[in-house]
C-alpha cells in the first residue's frame, strides 16, 4: 500500500525565522526581493548581521541604514579580497545593504575615484566617516580587515597599515609626510614582531605613537 499519510515535520525554528525575515523585508522594502532574500540568508549563514534598515527615533522606517563597523565587515566580505572593484558592482552592493547614496557619492568625490576603485582606499574613507580621528579610523579599519577568530585582538599586516596610514594622512592634509614617515619607522623598528602584524593596541595604547 502506498504511504499517503506520511507525517511532515516542521523545524521548530522555522516559524520564527520566517517571521523575522518577513518583518525585515517589510521594513527594508527592497526593489529586488529575490536578491535581497539571498543576501539576507547568506549573511545569516555566515553569522553576519542581515541587511536591514534601522528604525528612526520616531519609530518609522528610515530611508537608509546607518553605516556601522558590522556593515563594513559585510561589505568587505562581499568584495572578496579584491584590490580593485568596478564602481557599478560596488554601487550595487551598497544598494543591497540600503546604505545612504549621499555617503557613497561623497566618498567617491573625496577619493576622486572613477570606474575602477581601489577598495582599501575606499574602505579607509568609509572608516574615517565613523572614526573622526586618524587613530580611531585606523582602529576601525583593523577591526574590519582582521581575519583573527576566537576573540583575539584585531591584527593586520603592517604593510597594509603603512599603506592605509599614509593614505588617510594624505587625505587629512594636516599631518606632514615627515611625521608619517617617523611614526611608521618607529612602529616598524620598535613594535612589529617577526610575524609582521600590528595590533590595535600597538598604536592606541603606546604613548610614543602619535598618529594625529
TrEMBL record:
Gene: ROPN1
UniProt similarity note: Belongs to the ropporin family.
Name of the protein: Rhophilin associated tail protein 1
GO biological process terms on file: cilium organization; flagellated sperm motility; protein localization to cilium; sperm capacitation
InterPro entries with a match to the protein in the record: ROP_DD
Primary residence: other
Free-text function comment from the UniProt entry: Important for male fertility. With ROPN1L, involved in fibrous sheath integrity and sperm motility, plays a role in PKA-dependent signaling processes required for spermatozoa capacitation.
Domain of life the protein comes from: Eukaryota
Entry GO CC: sperm cytoplasmic droplet; sperm principal piece
Subcellular compartments: Cell projection, Cilium, Flagellum
UniProt KW keywords: Cell projection, Cilium, Flagellum, Phosphoprotein, Ubl conjugation
